[in-house]
Give the backbone structure.
Amino acid sequence: MSDGKFGRRDLLKRAAAVGAGVAAASAGLQSAVAQDAAPAGEAMPMVPKRKLGKTGEMVPVLLMGGSQKFDPVFDKMLHRAYKLGMNYIDTAESYANGQSHVTLKPFIEQVGRKNLWITSKSGMFGGSGPGTVAMYRDAIMKEFDVLGTDYIDAYFFHGLKHTECLEPEYIKFADELKKSGKTKYFGFSCHDGNVVDLMNKAAKLGGDAVNMIMFRYNFTMYGDVELNKAMDACVAAGIGLLSMKTQSSVPQDNEMVKKFQSENFTLHQARLRAALEDERITASVSGINNMQILMENTKAVTTAKALTAKEMIQLHQYAAQTAEYSCRGCTHLCETKVASDLKIGDQLRYLMYAECYDQRSEAQQLYAKLSVSERNFHSVDLDDATKACPQKINIRGRLEKARALLA
Ligand code: SF4
């Protein structure tokens, strides 16, 4: 076993050998060198690629998150990422109030459409029910107008919560899109709701119907048996898996954050690396909003060093001791226990963007879009919701924090 080239079983053995019980997996992350992406004289390693399920497409293991507004004249960060091999941009018409699409358009023209892989998504229509096919059909047309492209590589139903959206009429709609050339592939993203049910249903449909899934996955979830089974089923069906929220949701000033020790990785890098060392994950998407994070992320996946068992144990301890901050988005457990429209999962996710991902203004915009009844928790009995929470989160306390930071 050499650094950076070990397999899933090796890491399991190493973790088990020291009693960590961490069900992490690992795959080698190899890279070539980008000669022109670095300052003069320095050669930067290229972000490695992996195969995306049954599609057979090779995509970079780091995807460029597009939830922010870019520099419409010349976005240095996008260009640097592109030169490092991150030619996959994950965006959505709703991101940054539409500004993600608007400000990506010049970059697409600068590097050439055919050199990029673009994923976009629509949905999150609000309300408690699934969007209709007609709603998705209307929504996708906006994608092309603003991006200035006549196709996107993959189209996602955004923030899927309802398994009904994988019924035949929706899959037929997705197939029509593929046949029309509007998109090559179809999938969905999900960060709350019953992710396990959604993934299991997708696995039954198979990797030709649902080509890829982007879901919340990080080191705090290694012990989730049902999620692991659902991931295995998706991989067996040929569905490409993309992880997001790899940093979990612990505030950066938490004591456990400060305690992490490693010779090779910052905690941020270790958390990102931990998701990608699971060989079932093709790639991770990161909200990269400055050059420092871009370089930190790139180094995490291009180094020949792998996470050691000691580092995995630290992550395992960190996950256990900070569980009360780590909302997993399982809103079917808590939101069904309150007698109002209160959006617990959304509010805690926006709080995470502000506390952990340095995206406070984006989080404030999202928070402001919630209706009064979706935000209001003061007059709501939260006892049953709190009892139902597997992470033992102080829901009222965290909602208060969200209001203090985001209102
Ligand atoms: S507050 Fe708890 S139950 Fe609700 S979504 Fe978050 S982790 Fe799940």
